[in-house]
Amino acid sequence: MNILADFIFGTAAELNGIFIYEQGGVLAGLEVTGYTGDAPKNLPQFDALRPMTDAFSQKDL
After folding, report:
1. Structural domain for 42, as ranges
2. What gap in Å lies between CA 23 and CA 2, rounded to an integer?
């Protein structure tokens, strides 16, 4: 299984992550996780997603 994409969304107080996986060229999974609490109940809008590397840059949160 390989990660196709990984993003963060939310504020520093409510930071979440989303991962998309593939296996053998076929979509194999989507994982949504809450880093500061429970995973969110709804998926974010596309424009709310930021690259996972932004999780290490406080200015972007």
Report:
1. 2-60
2. 6
pLDDT in tens, 9-54: 999 899 999 999 999 999 999 999 999 999 999 999 999 999 988 7
> What is the Cα–Cα distance from 9 to 23, expressed in whole angstroms?
25
What's the domain count of the chain? 1
- Which residue carries 């809450």 as its tokens? 34
Cβ atoms of 10 and 17 within 8 Å: the answer is no
The model carries a pTM of: 0.79
CA angle 35, 39, 42 (to 5 degrees): 130
Residues 18 and 9: beta-carbon distance below 8 Å: yes
- Tell me the C-alpha distance between 17 and 39, whole Å: 9
